[in-house]
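A quick aside before the break. I want you to see a complete sequence-to-structure record at least once, exactly as it would be stored in a machine-readable document. Don't worry about memorizing anything.
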Amino acid sequence: MCPVSPLDDRYACEIEELRDIFSEYALTKNRLLVEIEYIIELSTQGVIEEISEDKKDRIRKIYENFDQNEFAEVKRIEKETKHDVKALEYYLRRKFHENGLSELSRYIHLGLTSEDINNIAYSLMLKECLKVYLVHLKRLIERIIELGEQWKDVVMISRTHGQPAVPTTLGKEFIVFAYRLCREYSKLKSLTLTGKLNGAVGNYNALKFIFPKVDWIKFSESFIRKFGLEPILITTQRNIHDPISELLRKIVSINNILLNFVTDMWMYVMLGYFRLTFDIREVGSSTMPHKVNPI
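That is the input. The structure line, written in tokens, reads:
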């Protein structure tokens, strides 16, 4: 094994659920989903000819059947194009021909720029990650509340500036952290990620040139909402990244609360309120036999 970081080795099992969400394979499959649904949306909104239900099923099957072997084919094409989204476009065009959809292949990626596909794909990945993250955060909050209830009658001396203060209960000190985490959980759960579909520099230029009578702002808004994303209609070539920054700031806030929590737990160990448990097979130190690693 040649891991690049501890996330590839020591802590790999801790992020197993995220590996499938953030892999390049997952990114490519999300890109494929956007490209496919874009063509179907062109038909649904009457921009191009009607696509029969049978053909829609065949188009969506391309996405459903996209596995590691298909991904390898996209990567093979990318070695020639030196462009990941263009490689996917060529791959999809070939799949259309193979599935008797040649007459619709001319609409693949029509009027779009790579960022129109990428930004939605990234938002879908983050949206999926957020679902996993919130499940684990909720589980942690529930566990802290359980411990708070379990120890609500355990009286101890509280501390202020590291000095003995007045009595408190161990349960109440746990509930403080549950309350703080609940506030951040609610904020994070209400956060909406965004998407944009407006062409090379955000002005719908190519789209308007090809189909001048279409209300592309209305089209873009409807299309993006179907992914559960908030449409951003005024951009440059790239989607705004403020919502992603907001998401990351909220996770930083949660991490800071958890850092406060574990610091208090370490202090309780130091004061002798808690004792670290360990497996007889574990080694806490290469030189101190009495030490237990708090991991």
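Two observations worth writing down. The chain has a mean pLDDT of 94. Residues 113-274 form a domain with the Fumarase C; Chain A, domain 2 fold (CATH 1.20.200.10). We'll return to this after the break.
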